[in-house]
Structures are given as structure tokens and as C-alpha cells.
Amino acid sequence: MEHLMAYATSHPARKVINYPLFEVPGRLWEYLCNRSEIELNQTFNGLSKKQYNKLVQNLFCHILNIDGKTTFKEEFVTAGGIALQEVNPNTMESMYHPNLYFAGEILNIDGITGGFNFQGAWSTGYLAGISSVNSSI
Prior knowledge:
Shape: elongated
Radius of gyration: 22 Å
Low-confidence stretches: none
Order of helices and strands: HHHH
Distance between the termini: 55 Å
Strand content: under 5%
Helix content: 25-40%
Mean pLDDT: 85
């Protein structure tokens, strides 16, 4: 709570919802603010003690019930990463930085995975490993 109060003191005019703290992703921060009854335009200096307490409670003790998965693309944890056109597909080596290899979810590979993300990680990892060893010989 001290960190939250210190931030509010340092930045009283900032809108709470626009400044996620504690490295909380933006959408989760917005959800937690909503659960804490913090309005969209509310600033840090406008928060009541009750709202501070609710926000702290939601940050550290909120229980999320997960029931299955949603539609395509909503279940992905990662997206984005190193653009595939910046990587040699035969070696997984960076096109811009020699002897730098990429594998797995650091690459911008999205799709319906259904477990195939493991295969992608294993395959690109193997290829990057073999290629890096071969380039040092």
C-alpha cells in the first residue's frame, strides 16, 4: 500500500486507469480498477481510502475463476516478438546480428496451437542449437 500511496503523492493528477503499477498488464489493471470501483476519469488524488483498500485487496487477493477457454486468439498468453522476416528460417539466426539465434515464443508465431506451440519451441530450439554449434566450428 505504501508504494501505491507514494505514487499517488508523486503523481496526483494522473488518471489511475492509465497508469498500471507493479508491472500489471494494462487490461488486467483496468479490470482491477473497475472491480475496485475506480471510475475511468478518476485521478490518484481523488481516490478514497476505501478505493485504495479495494485496489490493494484486488491486486493481492483477487480470485479468478477460469472455466474453459474462449474463442480463437483470446487464450494466447504471448503474441508478437521477433518478426519472422528478420530470422533465417533455415538456421534461426538473426538477419541483422550474426551469431544471434532465436527460438520458441520469442518469435512472432501465432496460430491455433493446441499444443503445437511446444513443437514449435522444440523445433526452432533444435534448429537454433544445431546452427549455432555448426557456425562456431
